[in-house]
Amino acid sequence: MSTPKAVHTLHPYETREQYIHYIHVKHVNATLSKHLSFLQYTPEHVAGPGADIDPTQITFPGCACTDTPCLPGTCSCLRHENNYDDSLCLGTIGLEAKYAKPVFECNILCQCGERCRNRVVQRGLQFRLQVFQTDRKGWGLRTLESIPKGRFVCEYAGEILGFSEVQRRIHLQTAHDPNYIIAIREHIYNGQVMETFVDPTYIGNIGRFLNHSCEPNLLMIPVRIDSMVPKLALFAAKAILPGEELSYDYSGRFLNQISSEDKERIDPEQLRKPCYCGAPSCATFLPYDSSLYWFPLGKPDTS
Ligand SMILES: C[S@@+](CC[C@H](N)C(=O)[O-])C[C@H]1O[C@@H](n2cnc3c(N)ncnc32)[C@H](O)[C@@H]1O
Ligand SMILES: [Zn+2]
Ligand SMILES: [Zn+2]
Ligand SMILES: [Zn+2]
Fold this sequence. Notes:
This is Histone-lysine N-methyltransferase SETMAR. Keywords: Chromatin regulator, Chromosome, Metal-binding, Methyltransferase, Nucleus, S-adenosyl-L-methionine, Transferase, Zinc. The chain is α/β, with parallel strands linked by helices. Helix content is 14%, strand content 21%. It has one domain (7-293): SET domain (Beta-clip-like, Beta Complex). The chain is built from 6 helices and 14 strands. The protein is globular and about 55 Å long. The structure holds S-adenosylmethionine and zinc ion (3 copies). The site of S-adenosylmethionine (SAM) has 16 residues, from strand 6 and strand 11.
């Protein structure tokens, strides 16, 4: 078995400058260089074709906590309980809940300071991560440091798209192309569902290198800060050791369980790719969102 080769490392506080630096100066692999030459880096979502909401638009009012820390009951950003504990760990991680609870962090309009405990994802990368070449899955992302359970690891950022544009891009892909488009469906109330489509294929951050695992070490949680468009934040679902590959479950188990109707639509022969995650409970194929492939091209945006 060949040893996976490291190609570039990202230090804490991922910035555009650091990213460009590592890609253009420190990379040692011409293939990755070629692969990334068309990728425009963004640490945050950007509005793409058909996006309902501009993800950079400030939507939420701020809290008025000046003299007291942001706490449930007094802080308008915290409805029922703290999102994070004193060690910056997500409180609900590891709970056997069927769905993730919505997370609202304090935002740019809040009166509390930068050190407020309800500001975690907005602090950016805290651990040194590295893009490397895997044996069978293309590029992957691993950590160079230990990551405690519950800590924020990175975002999955990219272009926010409307449904028609998702359809258009999906139809341009071949069965062999890696797919980066992700659909997040959140049940809001009264049966209403909010859909967010993120595509880091052309414009994105390091989250695009995260591979799928049937036994992942990360969990994706929608987190809102300034905008109604959720940041797709990945938290450590367990303690992670230096050198371990980072992965999450593409099916969104926990957040976005596959319905039996969806399962019936799946055509394993044509659309499903083999999963090489290597987990004992591997489901053999990569999960995929059948609704992205099912509707005819040209379905109008709901915007
Ligand atoms: C978001 S990209 C992940 C980064 C990708 N490996 C790369 O080289 O850019 C998703 C694609 O990676 C590949 N991939 C991810 N997880 C995989 C797995 N467990 N087994 C096989 N291929 C995988 C598939 O081609 C998938 O469409
Ligand atoms: Zn507050
Ligand atoms: Zn606050
Ligand atoms: Zn698997």
